[in-house]
Amino acid sequence: MDLTKTPPRSVRSPWQGIVQLGRAIDKGKAKAHGNLGEYHYNCPMDQAVFGFLGIDADALLERIRTAGGDAEIEAFTRPFVAKKSAAEIENWNREWLNHAPETPEKQAYFQELLRSIDPSRADVTTWVDLLDLEEGREVPQRAATIA
What we know:
By secondary structure, this protein is mainly α. Helix content is 54%, strand content 0%. It has helices at residues 21-32, 44-53, 57-66, 70-82, 86-97, 104-117, 127-134.
């Protein structure tokens, strides 16, 4: 995985049914191979999914470094995912995909980033949509929310 050439997968792309986890693993692969670019492994978004699952970021990174492929990485993450019920996973995915800035400071930062990416997109209100937009993925137009 070379994140100096292409972005990691979208937050929306699940790994073993968990959103954000695949993206974190992509960044781990890039870090392990020295191709992380401007991305950050174990950023706050990665930390959130690791916290939800109880995964140690350093242990996962070491597994990624030594793995012979995705099957070995999946074998490492599977027990953590298996501890979560279908309802817990569904709730995590729904909440994470709708995660928006939580404080006035984070909202101001979010708006600053959005203006630099596409100031015409007042409908973009979640971190997932902002990342997809920044990385060139299609983000459907939605009715703008009045703040």
